[in-house]
Amino acid sequence: MEKTALTGRKKLGYAFGIASESLLYNMYYTYFLTFLVQIVGIRPQYAGVVIFISIAWDAITDPILGNISDRPGVNKQKLMLKSVLPMCVLFVLAWAPFGKGLPGDFTKILVYTLISIGLWLFYTIYTIPYYSVIAELTEDYDERTKIRSISSFINAFCIGLGNILPALVGVGGMSYIHIALIIAVLSLASGVVCCLSLRGVYKTRQPLAGERVSRGLGIRDTLRSFAEIARLKPVKYFLFFVFFFLAGNSMLQSNLSYMVVYSIGGNYNDGIAIVIGVLVVTLAATVPIVTKISEKTDRRTTCLIFITIAAVGLVVPRLVGMDTAVGGFKVMLVVMPFLLGLGLSTFWTFFYSMSYDIVELDEFVNGKNGERRESIITSFPQLVQKFGSATGILAQGLILGAYGYDSGADAGKDVIFSAYTDESVINGMSNVSTVIPAAILGVALVFLLLYPFTRKNYDRLMEQLRLKREGKPYSTEGLERLVK
Known about the structure:
By secondary structure, this protein is mostly helical. 74% of the residues lie in helices and 1% in strands. It has 17 helices and two strands. The protein has a two-stranded antiparallel ribbon. The radius of gyration is 22 Å and the shape is globular. Mean pLDDT is 85; it is low at 409-415.
């Protein structure tokens, strides 16, 4: 299969496309629960439901869009370009504060759920082609990692902007919708740059001889493809790893504001600035380190090392006390974002590259005449990723509600947190930031340990896949952990 070389400039242009989704993703995942609770006035358990329904719907559309995107004649570049503007417009609308004037929780839940569903639909139309296209452009194990590393390095700063800018709410008259507008403009610009960078290197796939081209939504074909992919031995371990990692990570990330104010006992504006600053530095510093280690070992081993450090480290703050101070400085304002960034950076550096490995395995086991399913295979982990993220945020909202947190005193204000001294609530917020996500990450690590796709196994697979493509005899000997 012929591949077009990506120049350094093209790789950088493509990598900037991550800003289009990352800026929106991080502001939403970190602050939307807080926005719904503190500004709109929805109770936390119901606010979690809004986010869960929205992201769950987005997850369901992932495989459908993946199936459509894989069809011959479908131009991934044009799909991205057409979706980025409505995605950004709906993002701004999601942060409009008109909801605080609506009567009753049900009306507020309905309105913000519908807006969020629209936002995440166009997000899917953009991200599925964006992430899957690299699997079409290169099969080199290390080149895929390097491209994703460039993207992850840029993503570190996008995570920073997506978290720092919303922390300015209440400063100089800034509100959430003002911040959302700034982020939407940056997102739109980066998406256009990315689409332009694919000119000349991406080619729309044409039908192979005798290939049947599906029409409509292709739900039956999608389910059939999923069933075939799910039977691949490494897939179940990878998907469970993704689900549990994102569930634990999203619970911690969406609880940052409450953690700073109530668990650590810091001033919100100063505390969140320190937290996000440390998070960004950790993300940026971790990417080249994990990339280098993966070149010496492989992606799986590197993930095991760094995510284990993050998971074990989360237990320590709970043991020594979240409000521990040295010379008056709250130490956990540095420790907690460092641990979050360590796991987050490692995961996103390798997540999509690990997904691409399954593309070659699927072609080897299920492919006929060189047929490949880059988009639908990329969408499968994304579906699980989003259910994991939505579950984590939903659980956080339910736990806060169960511990008795009431946002009534703060509703309608711009993220001004009232004093809260209920020890039960504060303990609950501390648990959501430490031992609970640590336990969930521990489960994720078990599945990662069982995941068999090492560098050695990938090289063996590619050797036999090349023989299959050339119509020569090939064997599954030595690939028992990958194929039945």
